């Protein structure tokens, strides 16, 4: 899996 | 923040307000699944532990706090304040049938094997199916109060609007998250049957009832 991005969603 | 996400969040807030209003105005939580609400409380609690670790914006933090607080307030209303009106006999969907598979899937399919990330992944999977006890309850009673159907419509629309937001972000920002997208699509699909009945009945002023 790809690197997690910053979670800016709810 | 694009228009689709804004509308999605607005729809989510509206759903929560409608839910609390329904319970407060009718002094009753009849027709509501406490088990779905337990699932939502678990969803918000596990997803928003990042409140402590990462800051995105004031809007983001406030929304998270409101979602967590309102989910526990709803549980209080159902299981304590208006417990006498709770339809426990019909609310029989086994939550462990959702919790266990979602936990296992989160352990297998995730972006990174790390506590906060695993909790986030679990919450995304659980949210996609958290409405099932509520839909199961309606299928058992065969009907829903109009205000409950408004609640479900708002709640279902929210993830559908997020899908538009993800399509937009894919093209404009080259941002995408396959876990969120696939769970969001499943979540929205689960509402399709309900959407159909809502549009063909409730919008035309009829009561929400399942076809005989």
UniProtKB/TrEMBL annotation, chain B:
Q: Which UniProt keywords apply?
A: Endoplasmic reticulum, ER-Golgi transport, Membrane, Protein transport, Receptor, Transmembrane, Transmembrane helix, Transport
Location relative to the cell: Endoplasmic reticulum membrane
Report any one BP term from Gene Ontology.
protein transport
One of the record's GO molecular function terms: ER retention sequence binding
Question: Which Pfam families does the record cross-reference, listed alphabetically?
Answer: ER_lumen_recept (PF00810)
Membrane spanning residue stretches:
62-80, 92-113, 119-139, 151-172, 178-199
Q: Kindly list the GO CC terms recorded for this protein.
A: endoplasmic reticulum membrane
Q: How does it sit in the membrane?
A: Multi-pass membrane protein
Q: Which family does it belong to?
A: Belongs to the ERD2 family.
Name of the featured protein: ER lumen protein-retaining receptor
Q: Which organism is it from?
A: Schistosoma mansoni
